[in-house]
Here is the input.
Amino acid sequence: MAYKLYGAALSPYSARCRMQMYAKGLEFEAVSVFDKLSPEEFAGLTPLKKVPALDVDGLILPESQVIAEYLEEVETDVPLMPVSAEERARVRLLARIGDLYLMMPLGKLFGQVNPQGRDPKLVQYMFGELDKAMGWLAHYVDGSKYAVGDKLSLADCALIPMLFFSSNITPLFGRECLLCETPVVHNYFTKTLDDPAVGRVVQELEEAFAKMMGPKTEPQKQPAE
Ligand SMILES: N[C@@H](CCC(=O)N[C@@H](CS)C(=O)NCC(=O)O)C(=O)O
Here is the structure.
């Protein structure tokens, strides 16, 4: 099958699909939607107008979770779902906690990054929601290298890009290491970077995030004349 992934470098949902496709060893063409397509062209592909969308020989599938499940069904050589029903349920639960309860406050905080015009009450509320979601993740992850069991799963594909965002956005609000405040999650995030598919995606996200933030001002070594 010929795959084309319509995505965006910084989108955690696109990163979720890339991680799965890297782990499965699937070839695909990556199309950076917001650079390459007009809004009309993208709307012609999917009325949701959201990335990612996967083109499978002309069939366009939107929604990262739907894409993930589709790929699990058709590309079975490297499965990213555990065998037992209990572990499979936990994979789905963790991805769902990420989708519903982690991404909601993160999305709102992303809109508040600029200190000018920031709404402190909204920010405080969203940090409360984020803290709750981190606590729920801590309850359900194994606390080892992978979220569930001893292999990469769809839970890792969903969560790692979201945790990358949590750890990069929150310092802009003065919470220097949000993940360190939840050691089980922090441990999981740092250990899983060893996995080649995880490491590759996190590096891509780091590059895209650095590009978005612009060049850092180097500290002055010499006193100004
Ligand atoms: N539930 C969707 C969320 C996708 C999403 O919100 N993508 C964002 C980028 S991270 C987007 O395309 N935003 C553009 C828009 O909403 O118009 C999924 O899992 O794929």
Q: What stands out?
A: Strands lie at 3-7, 29-32, 53-56, 59-62.
